[in-house]
Structure of Glucose 1-dehydrogenase:
Amino acid sequence: MADGSRMFALTGQVAVVTGAGRGIGRGIAAALADAGADIVAVGRHPAGALADHVERAGRRCHSLVFDLADPAQVEEVIPRAAAAAGRVDILVNNAGATTRGPALDVTPEEWQRVLQVNLHAVFRLCQAAAREMLPRRRGKIINIASLMSFEGGILVSPYTASKGAVGQLTKALANEWAPLGINVNAIAPGYIATDLTRPLQEDTTRNPAILARIPAGRWGRPEDLGGAAVFLASAASDYIHGHLLAVDGGWLGR
Ligand SMILES: NC(=O)c1ccc[n+]([C@@H]2O[C@H](COP(=O)([O-])OP(=O)(O)OC[C@H]3O[C@@H](n4cnc5c(N)ncnc54)[C@H](OP(=O)(O)O)[C@@H]3O)[C@@H](O)[C@H]2O)c1
């Protein structure tokens, strides 16, 4: 039986977190660092306050600036992360984008941008990370899915399409890579108060409707995702493969 105090430890491991500079990614990266991991923070902007948190936790933070909407830049992420930090033990595919509006108004450019960041980049980063992890026959990949991996949502058709696919991709990759020692799982956040959901938080009709359905009675906070991320990154979840873990204040059970 594993020692409970060590089961969740990430001491000495390297975690690549996309979109780590703010919102959910920042909450997750901070929790992984608190559990002992060095962080490679990937985003269009430098990691900023996250880097201070990671260093206060006594860990190293490498900040890599890449635009995941550009397929060519996606290819550079894992090689650059491995070069900076020595290896990649954990990948959290968190960076995400959306567009809001009727499906009839979605332009090809909007569709392409959302699918590129939320799905195509995720697949290529999973592939590259798995290749890097393979020689050690150990690794943890955590994709950030959504309630929209289960539900249709309202006025977010490209986002819903991408997150539904992320859920299925997580299961498909787990089927192939579990025998190789790589765990692929997903976290499905509920309604979390971040820049991404600011239009909903400020919508005087949608905000009370959302709150009324959340059994926990409040919007989630980025730090609410930290525990699930540490769990799926740690030895505590070694026999968990292809699971979508909802962290939603009870929304899906309603
Ligand atoms: N908030 C929610 O209620 C909720 C619910 C379910 C799922 N999610 C998912 O959780 C993840 C994080 O969402 P969030 O709410 O924290 O969003 P957010 O506050 O808008 O932050 C988005 C993050 O993604 C990064 N990002 C966006 N486009 C990028 C690009 N082209 N290249 C590189 N990085 C990019 C941003 O970094 P830079 O600005 O530095 O580029 C930022 O760190 C997303 O996958 C989202 O779909 C969120």
